[in-house]
Amino acid sequence: SNHDGRKRVVFVIMNDELLSSPHATLKKAAVDKLRANKNKVKMYDLDTSREIANDDDLIISLKVKMLQVVVCGKGEELAIQWKTYGSSSSSSRNKTSIEGMSEKEQLDSPQEKVFVRYMHNHSQVDEEAITQVETTAELPFMRCCIGMPDLHPGRGSAVGCAYASEGVIYPHLVGSDIGCGMTLYQTPLRSNKRNSKRSKNWAEQLNLDTPRTQKDGEVARIWLKERNIQPTDFDQRTLGTIGGGNHFAELQQVESIIDEEACAKMGIKEDHMYLLIHSGSRALGYSVFEQHVEKATKETNGLKEGTELFRDYMTKHDHCCDWAKANRELIAKRFLDCLGANLYEESNQVLNIWHNAVVKRSFLQEHNGNNEDERRTDTTKDYYLHRKGAAPADVGYCVIPGSRGDFSYIVNPTPSRIQQQRSGYSLPHGAGRKLRRDQARNRAKGVIDPSRLATTSLGSCVVCEDSNLLYEEAPQAYKEIEGIIQDLTDTGTASVVAIMRPVLTYKMRSTVYR
């Protein structure tokens, strides 16, 4: 059910699946699916709003990849939105240039069917995000696009999605915060019934946004050297800082243990407190992104495997991922140092994941048998798996945080490789935005006092002295994390290991320093 009350059913079809009378074929499908009166079924081109009355009109609309079937009657409007992929038309493919590949090579390249799947059922997904995914599916050499339950619109491409391409990478499908991810620590701090009172004292002690000095630069240099990571021009100013947006450092306690055996393996204990860090490569990642994606254009360049530009991007990409992990580790140390001496040194890293990255991944190639049990999956192809706001499902346990006023979930991905591939070897990276930042800000300003958002409905404290950011990151701006998790468990993609309760969330102490 759409936000405007209309019902929509989305079908993915291929051009070669259309019969000799495509208009009649689609109309019958609409009538059968919606159980509608065939005399009340009308088709319209989404681009021109022109009615599609016959096969010729339909073929023209298919070339632009969109049409809409609308059924009107009895005060209710129903719609089927059709999308087509794998067209051999060169007009849409000319929009994207692949660095290191001639235009003729691009146009002559074989177009395979693109597997597109959306994993949301209980969670709500904005139609703009769907459109962005389907636009991405039309890029040359794209092989699959999997929308996570937390899918939402992003800048140019949807966030909360896994994209796999063959022989080509697209930097914009990783985004500017290369290596962004999460690191979870078990701290020596003991959890007890006084956590809510203690959190207020801890909040007063925390300040990770003091002006940066030469001493910070020296600390950063040593920190990176110990990890064999090359220094950058951004270290003094940004290494060890959280940044804005949805990044945070959060002290948590165990709300409930669901899988005792898994928790024992991970070292998750109810009497300990945990620190979850969400941040990335900061200005370093943005500088790499700028070098490889043209500004002020909707046409995005891909990079062909084996070219100098490809190697240059991947070298810098891997450096950003290492730098981002080191950044999260330094944030954890600075956070815990504010609360007591040697807390970081006595802490244990439980897990670390990147959810903005591109990796090479072998994908099983399915050959249709007579039924699903007979499908052969003994051959593989290497694809480049881009994760933009999608956590890995193929590296073990993962943490999926809710909004700042909600629980976080530690999950165990399914061991089934076929099931993992159906989810693009990926998981949601959080609850996903329900409202754009400007929407959340405008709805809350003048209505909600910022001080009310400093304490959540779960009793946790939020440190954020930027009122605009506080509004933008309010729990109301995000989807319900329970729906995201239910979508994972219902599809057998992952199981819940433990539920974590927020105690203290740090975002930003001052608007002066970013």
Mean pLDDT: 82
Low-confidence runs of at least 5 consecutive residues: 1-19, 63-95, 295-299, 367-375
Gap between N and C termini? 40 Å
- Kindly state the percentage of residues in helix: 25-40%
How many DSSP E strands?
23
- Major beta-sheet overview: 8 strands, mixed
What gross morphology would you assign? Answer: globular
Strand content: 25-35%
Give the helix tally.
15
The rounded Rg comes to 24 Å
Which class best fits the helix and strand makeup? alpha+beta
List keywords for this structure.
514 residues, 8-stranded mixed sheet, disordered N terminus
Task: Please describe what this structure looks like.
The chain has 514 residues and is an alpha+beta fold. Helices cover 29% and strands 30% of the residues. The protein has 15 helices and 23 strands. The protein has helices spanning 22-34, 55-63, 90-93, 103-108, 127-136, 195-205, 214-226, 235-238, 260-266, 282-292, 308-339, 417-422, 437-444, 467-472, 481-490; strands spanning 7-14, 41-44, 51-52, 66-73, 76-85, 98-99, 115-118, 142-152, 159-165, 168-169, 181-190, 248-257, 272-279, 302-304, 348-354, 356-367, 376-388, 390-392, 398-400, 408-413, 426-428, 461-464, 494-508. The strands form 5 sheets. Strands 11, 12, 13, 15, 19, 20, 22 and 23 form an 8-stranded mixed sheet that branches. A 5-stranded mixed sheet has the order 1-5-4-2-3. Strands 7-8-9-17-16 form a 5-stranded mixed sheet, with helices on both faces. Helix 10 runs antiparallel to helix 11 (308-339). The chain is globular, with a radius of gyration of 24 Å.
